[in-house]
Design goal:
Pept_HybD-like_dom_sf, 188 residues, alpha/beta, endopeptidase activity, Rossmann fold, 6 helices, globular
Length: 188
């Protein structure tokens, strides 16, 4: 049975800054998967074979969530947080992890300074700053951030649409994690 919990998956980043676009590329793949499922394409379709770690059971729940390309939204992100019980943010981060590493960070950990790395640095305002403003002004839904370790320091500007192979490969490892997260939320 599917719960009535409302979930939004939000990809953040800049496609013109290489690895920083990982959040956008991830939600593009999730949107394509959702579109195929809603169009009646069976999970046995070759499209889904790119995701061998994917639980076919978890794909069902993708149809129950909202997916948003938030780009480099800055303070506009405040309106993207409203009306949902949970927000899953996917973005690049720079910390001390290996290139392409995936970290799951609870929103309250980012707000309390426990989160790692630098999130959404190509944006006007960082994710922790937006979450802090939202908490004070409008309240916050449950927030979970999936950060992918990027190669360059986020403040370095190198215009390219190419991602490093490690970050690109992380997308296919990240998708099953996100789908498993929404499956757990929607079956509780």
């Amino acid at each position: 049975m599917v719960s009535q919990k409302t979930i939004r998956i939000m990809g953040c980043g800049n496609l013109w800054m290489g690895d920083d676009g990982v959040g956008i590329h991830t939600v593009e793949k999730l949107t394509a998967m959702k579109d195929k499922l809603e169009g009646g394409i069976p999970v046995s379709d070759p499209f889904f074979s790119d995701f061998p770690e994917l639980s076919l059971d978890s794909l069902f729940y993708l149809k129950e969530v909202d997916i948003l390309d938030a780009g480099v939204s800055g303070l506009d992100m405040l309106c993207f947080l409203e009306g949902f019980d949970k927000i899953i943010i996917i973005d690049a981060l720079k910390s001390d992890q290996n290139l392409g590493a995936i970290l799951r960070i609870k929103g309250e950990d980012l707000l309390d300074g426990e989160g790692v790395g630098k999130m959404m640095s190509s944006h006007d305002v960082s994710v922790p700053t937006v979450l802090g403003i939202a908490r004070e002004v409008q309240g916050l839904p449950e927030i979970v951030v999936y950060g992918v370790e990027i190669q360059k320091h986020p403040d370095e500007v190198n215009l390219t649409t190419d991602m490093s192979p490690e970050v690109e490969a992380a997308i296919d490892r990240l998708i099953p994690l996100v789908l498993d997260e929404i499956r757990k939320d929607l079956t509780d």
